Amino acid sequence: xxxxxxxxxxxxxxxxLVGFALVLTVGKxxxxxxxxxxxxxxxxxDLMTAGxxxxxxxxxxxxxxxxxxxxxxxxxxxxxxxMAGCLTILATNPGEGSLYLGxxxxxxxxxxMTIWGRG
Length: 119
Fold this sequence. Notes:
Layout: H1 2-34, H2 42-64, H3 69-89, H4 94-116
Helix pairs in contact: 1-2, 1-4, 2-3, 3-4
Transmembrane segments: 7-27, 47-65, 72-91, 97-116
Keywords: Membrane, Transmembrane, Transmembrane helix
């Protein structure tokens, strides 16, 4: 089961990184045209925009280094912070927030099985 989770999390992280890079590259040109004036959630959105690719990369690396418990725990703290950030987004963007929460929850399941599943 843990090998399956490693593959799912690893592939999903890699695909999400590529997709995120494409969205940022293509979306940058459309930013001024379609920018909304949402002020309250913009700080959280900016942090998510900057932090999600870094977090996805860390999650991807953690799949290849499951024996590095310290690194896994650091990524777990970052994932927990990202999940807290997702909770603030749920009110304004429930689809996006739920997608992030589901993906981060999948990694948290992988983390739990990796750390506590070893005996």
